[in-house]
Structure prediction request, 185 residues.
Amino acid sequence: MNVEIISKEIIKPSSPTPHHLRNFKLSFLDQHAPLFNFPIIWFYDSKKSVDVEPFERFCMLKESLAETLTHFYPLAGTLINEEFSINCNDKGVDYIQARVLCKLSQAIHNPNGNDLIQLLPFEPNSCNEFGKEVLLAIQYNIFECGGVAIAVCISHKLADGVSAVNFVNACTTKNLNFNSGCNHY
Prediction:
């Protein structure tokens, strides 16, 4: 499987975080949780999707992500390790579009961990390209057949599996009807 990055950008919340919510204190457990991001990949078969081109969905997902970040505002902030808090400064999240040079069926019928890592915005157990703690990054992968994989790396300091799924569902179900034909890995 070969993955080509098409674009990288920062998506900011569609509305600014109110001043009184700018400092998000981490819980005692989250303060002592290790710094790591965990990945989740959602696969969407093009045959079960609505009649929208993958690139158009990419643009629609950007808009939906910006709206959803207003409700999940700490994810668009910056970790302040010394204070055990998140500066909810609306810095934004990394959003990457990639083209996958194979069919979706090839990726999910014989999954290979080394291949699937290419679908992620960065390798979850390594420093990212900036050497900083990333709270959230998303990579939107378009397969040759029109199928899509949405890969999310999210900080365990801010989210567990359930809250990560709730966040992605909030982004993908609004005006996109991504839920039909979804497989989670």
User: Anything to note?
Assistant: The chain has one domain: 3-184.
